[in-house]
Amino acid sequence: MKTSLSVCMTLISAGIHVSLAVKSNEENPTVVMSFSRMLNINATIPRVAPWQVFGQQRQRWKRSTNASMNGAPEESVVVLNPRLRVSVSAHDYPFIVSLRKRGGQHFCAGSLLSDTHVLTAAHCVVPELTNGKRFRVINASDYEVGVGLHNRNGGNWRNWYAIKSIQPHEEYINPDNFKVLNDIALITLTKSVLAATKAGRIELPLNRNTNPQPGDRLLTIGWGKTTVLFDDLPEDLQGARLTVITDTECAKRLGKGRTMPTTNICTDNDGATTCSGDSGGPLFKVIGTKKFQLVGITSYGWKKCTQDKKASVFTRVSQYLPWILAAQANRSPRAHGRRHQ
């Protein structure tokens, strides 16, 4: 005899409303669970701005007990929907790199500019900021960069490189001021990347006027969150195609009173976006066979990631070309950097 039963219950401690549809028969009983409401985040963590940076900058949004994979307090995040994925095969985008603490797990991404230089987000390498601008940088010798990876836990010792120096932008401003500005940093490796790793570099924009237009479709890749309730990051590299929106539209989506500086670029996150773990990674376009041009660096976005009618924000690389070139040449970037406008 076939029977059908529907049960509704509330898990008070977790703040989850769960509908259980139980369908059974003598041969193949099944239980189907659907979540009608997500975790009540405000009940367990401090109330903060409705957006977040996506990498190691965790001091504004912390769990009280758990430790993260790289030793810092772990951020809490709920991803409402999986990202709209673009198929990514091994070595399709050989410039992507993974940042981790030595022997630890991935926490940020970056882009390989040369055989010794990686571009990433400042908030990936500046875990603390005090008095608005005074900050400390992570200890370079404690961290390493993985190149030529598709599976973030794959490869071998040849794929991991020690860090010689880390140079965040001197005018980097973090979310303590409810804004993220100049979110860019250059990592220099202790030795050149081996060709055997199958790593490759990405091109910089030709000049500061090399910018995509609203409506243009760009690519982003990373090992950021794709699941609904779980903290696990995907093992394999993921990708999404994003649409550029105007600065005015971006500011409107981020909330009242916000403005968008020319040093940032925004994309629509309706159905696809970056999320926690993607920080420092690339927003880019394909300019030829196995040739890519870096447009942006993943910086921050709406804390629910793929919530409709919000935006994802990237550092606009074209506006920092003098700063990048000065940092690569080991000159003081301060005289060459471009501050936000």
UniProtKB/TrEMBL annotation:
Gene Ontology annotations of biological process type: proteolysis
Entry-linked Gene3D superfamilies: Trypsin-like serine proteases
Signal peptide boundaries: 1-21
Entries under InterPro entries matching the protein: Peptidase_S1 (IPR050430), Peptidase_S1_PA (IPR009003), Peptidase_S1_PA_chymotrypsin (IPR043504), Peptidase_S1A (IPR001314), Trypsin_dom (IPR001254), TRYPSIN_HIS (IPR018114), TRYPSIN_SER (IPR033116)
Keyword check for Signal: yes
Single annotated GO MF: serine-type endopeptidase activity
Keyword line: Disulfide bond, Hydrolase, Protease, Serine protease, Signal
Boundaries of every Peptidase S1 domain copy: 79-329
Family listed: Belongs to the peptidase S1 family.
Name under which the protein is recorded: Chymotrypsinogen B
Natural source organism: Hypsibius exemplaris
